[in-house]
Design brief:
The model has no long low-confidence stretch (mean pLDDT 93). The protein has nine helices and no strands. The two termini are 24 Å apart. By secondary structure, the chain is mainly alpha-helical. The protein is globular and about 55 Å long.
Length: 214
């Protein structure tokens, strides 16, 4: 039983090179997801009321305590979801049916878990699914849940702080149907494309490192 848990948790030691590429992947994963949300709401209006529903931190007396609650919430979500979806769900399917099938299934269940949230507008569905795919690839390529947990936590801190609670500010930019293709839109496109390419490069390097050890 302990061996099965270790396998599902992808328990192993990361080399310095794996740590390097894992942290690169984690950071740019979070950047990719946030850039994709920015781009989404340059095509359609940002539904602030839906995104803020259920995330009212105003009852917490001080700003520092709100940030603490936010970080704790993001950390617990990142650890638990990566353990559940990319560990106990994805890993056994990988062993039986291969990584593509496993990543697809874990990503679909990851998306389904979030479909009851008020912020899951039609445009957010592919964003959530895409996040699941990248996290699945990261777990598979690194042979560890740690890089994905770090990336997931970084993503969720940004989601909580900016999109869901507004502690770090709010998105007020109008869609390009109203403003036209402006500089901020082009910057968001460049950030998204660059971040995604770096994530995929890091995933490729991580997989190469795992195969070289095996």
């Amino acid at each position: 039983m302990q061996a099965a848990r270790a396998t599902a948790f992808r328990r192993g030691t990361l080399s310095p090179t794996q740590w390097f590429w894992g942290l690169i992947a984690a950071f740019f994963f979070a950047a990719t997801i946030h850039a994709s949300i920015v781009l989404l709401f340059r095509f359609v209006s940002f539904p602030m009321a839906a995104f803020r529903h259920g995330y009212d931190f105003s009852f917490i007396p001080s700003r520092s305590q709100r940030w603490l609650a936010l970080v704790v919430s993001a950390t617990s979500a990142g650890i638990c979801e990566e353990t559940g979806f990319r560990g106990y769900m994805q890993r056994p399917i990988e062993q039986r049916h291969g990584a593509p099938v496993a990543i697809l299934i874990s990503s679909l269940f990851f998306m389904a878990l979030h479909l009851n949230k008020a912020w899951v507008t039609p445009g957010m569905v592919p964003v959530v699914f895409g996040a699941g795919v990248l996290l699945g690839l990261l777990a598979w390529s690194s042979g560890s849940l740690i890089p994905g947990m770090i990336g997931h936590i970084m993503m969720d801190i940004g989601l909580f702080a900016y999109w869901w609670t507004g502690i770090a500010g709010g998105f007020t930019t109008r869609p390009i149907t109203e403003t036209g293709v402006d500089r901020s839109f082009l910057i968001a496109c460049a950030v998204f494309a660059t971040s995604l390419l770096i994530v995929l490069l890091a995933i490729s390097r991580l997989r190469r490192e795992v195969l070289s050890v095996d």
